Amino acid sequence: MTSSSAYYYTKVMSELFLHSPSDTGISFQAISSMEDFWEFAQGPLLDSLYWTKWYNNQSLGRGPHSFIYYENLLLGVPRLRQLRVRNDSCVVHEDFREDILSCYDVYSPDKEEQLPFGPLNGTAWTYHSQDELGGSSHWGQLTSYSGGGYYLDFPGSRQACAEALRDLQEGLWLDRGTRVVFIDFSVYNANINLFCVLRLVVEFPATGGAIPSWQIRTVKLIRYVSNWDFFIVGCEITFCIFIFYYIVEEILELRIHGLCYLSSIWNILDLVVILLSIMAVGFHIFRTLEVNRLMEKLLQQPNMYADLEFLAFWQTQYNNMNAVNLFFAWIKIFKYISFNKTMTQLSSTLARCAKDILGFAVMFFIVFFAYAQLGYLLFGTQVENFSTFVKCIFTQFRIILGDFDYNAIDNANRILGPVYFVTYVFFVFFVLLNMFLAIINDTYSEVKEELAGQKDELQLSDLLRQGYNKTLQRLRLRKEQVSDVQKVLQAGKQEIQFEDFTNSLKELEHTEHEKTKLTAAFTRFDQDGNGILDEKEQKEMRQNLKGERVAIHAELENLGWSIVRSLPGESSPKQAAKAGGWVSGEEFYTLTRRVLQLETVLEGVMTQVDAMSSKMMMVERKGWLAPPPGAGEQGIWEHLQTASAVTPAPWGL
Fold this sequence. Notes:
By secondary structure, the protein is of the alpha+beta class. It has helices at residues 4-18, 34-49, 130-133, 158-170, 227-257, 265-300, 309-331, 333-337, 344-379, 389-401, 406-412, 416-452, 460-489, 498-507, 512-525, 535-559, 573-578, 585-622, 633-646, and strands at residues 67-68, 72-84, 138-139, 144-145, 150-153, 178-189, 194-203, 211-219, 496-497, 532-533. Helix content is 57%, strand content 9%.
């Protein structure tokens, strides 16, 4: 979505169009009047837009197309557009009506001029609505502007463009009714596959003067070009599959639990992440189709204005949405690491003190907004940071962080400025803000004290350690089994009887379950089924065991252990004993082997119990367990004894 190339692309374009001055020193950021605007438009703007020659005046050899900085193709032609207000949009006081004959108010849609004006004909002198231009509104420094207005699409060459701008200047295209001028164009860099959509804005307020601003959006609209992009396609398909799976899962959980499912903040967070992901997938499809349509239209009409502002805006919102979604996904990590008392200290503290913080926040913001209103009324006409109520709020947060220009308010009001600053710092910073910290610290102490008295829960490292050790012991048992079978095969006999094989395993103290698995291997290699392994069958079995042994060694090496090495944190049995109750690696291995053998036996017992239960149910359905009529408890017991004598022994004895 973003990269360092996008940042440098934006930086290069901003330095070229915003900071490049003309011969008289006027850059875009320095525009302060209508005269400055015309000087910039006919000088630095045209110089920056039209690159058709090398620095030695040799032609680029790329036809009429302009390649800014020799790398960035100017898409279509730039567009110049303005919005105006009517002459009767405001009322002049009666005392000044003889001297002031016209009045132009600040811009608003209901006061917008829509009639033709000027001495010439054409789109620059005729109003076009937002629907006709296919534009969108823009939020400027002073107010929000519509997507309509009077516009001029620049001609294809620099000379023709300079003549068109000269005609507009001579025809007084900008006058007292003008409130804003937009310069829109787009460039594309094929080296990094990025579009840069630029909008230069100059607002002409009712107070006079000019206020420049700009908007530069560097976006990737063509998604799939390089091999890396096609790898991203695979990731996106996988992402869609996961989203579909979780959609089904959330629907099923909502059907089962109903509205109670939303009682957990983690479940709400899951739904938010899924909804944002669905919106991202939908916009991704729309963006791909729309870009293909616009590119096809632009290739057919290269002298047309390339309106990528709409797509660039929504691509930026798409990136913002993905950023928020990724933020929530990171927050979900707390759900999976907060399973012991160490990890739950933060969440428990915030949950317990939430009510106290919310209650005290009401008092805090009453005082905070009171100071914001005070600062707005005291310094709003002289200090930029207090020029609006919203700016006052952010300025007061900056005062708390120490990022503040005290001299500005002191110069604006030498009496009330210091009073405002000192009282705000004392009451808000030293008193109220520290009350928040006191509430959190007190709650944290309580939570920590309660958790200290609780029993230690399983740590994440313990889970990893147990899984690691269990895997290691199973590999060791497999290695021992392979070694014992190899010992039996190395006895030197040309033929090995099945009975001798099982007796040898019994002498090596293998459990019944282990003997069952090993005798199954004997049967697998006994190809003729006569219960005897001849030399050929023994050779195949040795080769298989050799491969099995190599595989076990490889797994042990992957775990980072050797067969004779102790468990993590144990250097010797004596040192382990000194550590306070720990056992040595050899003792742990013996205990773990017995536990695994016990688990194996219990698995077999449970299997046999299930088989016996099934047989008992079958016998009961057949009526074998029904006692004679009128039989007492002794008669029922004798009947059960008789019935069980008919039933095959479930233990296989």
